[in-house]
Write a structure and sequence with these properties.
Shape: elongated
Structural class: alpha+beta
Number of strands: 9
Number of helices: 15
Helix content: 40-55%
Strand content: 5-15%
Largest sheet: 6 strands, mixed
Amino acid sequence: MSISLAIKEFKEKHKINSPSTVKDIARFFRALKDELEKGYINAQIIADFLQKNIASEEKRTRKVTARDFEDFVAAVFGGKVMDNESRKNEISVNLHGVEEFVAGYVASNRREKMDVKFSHFGVSVKTFVPKNKEINMGSFAREALFHNFLTLEDYGGERKSGLGSRPQMLKVFNKIKDQGKWKDFCKRFETMIDGIFEDDMLNVVKGGLVMEIYVISGQDFQKLMIERIKKGPESAVSIINRYEGNSIRINRDPVFEHSEKISLEFKLLEKSKLKDIYKCLAELDKYIFDGLNGKIKKRELQEKMILELTKIIDIIENTNI
């Protein structure tokens, strides 16, 4: 079944063109959820593709599914998947007046964040298995964050040195607060958050028989992070888990709670006639292969192919969708 044709007709029906914000992407998935529940065939074809290629038990633990979903989003909405060659320092926040040392790290970290680029905005795409409760937000330079607030000995590195867990993060944050520097530290944090995490976010939980999509704008994510930090160290570690290398890991629950959630229930596909059609198409594929390799005679090949095509026609005629 043609996934490209199904997507084309689905987009035309719902007047979904090039998105101007992440809300347009969310509208696509809301419509997909609605039509899947009603049993419409194009929605079933799209959902079947997502289940088999992104959310299934066989696929979901492979890291390639994150890139596969990026490819899907880019193909559907006319975006460009950003690879290492196409990334560059695209930063809109005003860094004038920001110390050059910090600004350099902000620009460098910013370059890594956008996964899919559209005409007027970018999207960061992340996929998860259900048991993964934290988000790897990528590079958020420790050197810049703690510059002139703490020494390297004060904040250390990862697990072995002092930033590898919430209790360790809390201890480091309290050092800054105890020195009376928390307000200034919040300004540094806000500058880095605004500069590095500008993009809207698509977070996808690959649940096998369900796919949960969480959509949040870059502005709402920035606001959430900054509000937590400004309330003090205890509040900060309610969302910041730890560092791993130079990448900051955060608690996914607050982010998901502030996101729009769209759930695609793939169990609904169990009642679909697609499975029967795919079975017939698989038989046709086998007969063609056997015919090309001279394993089956012309008359028998014709009879078997006509039989499978007749089955498909009968399925279509008896499908009320």
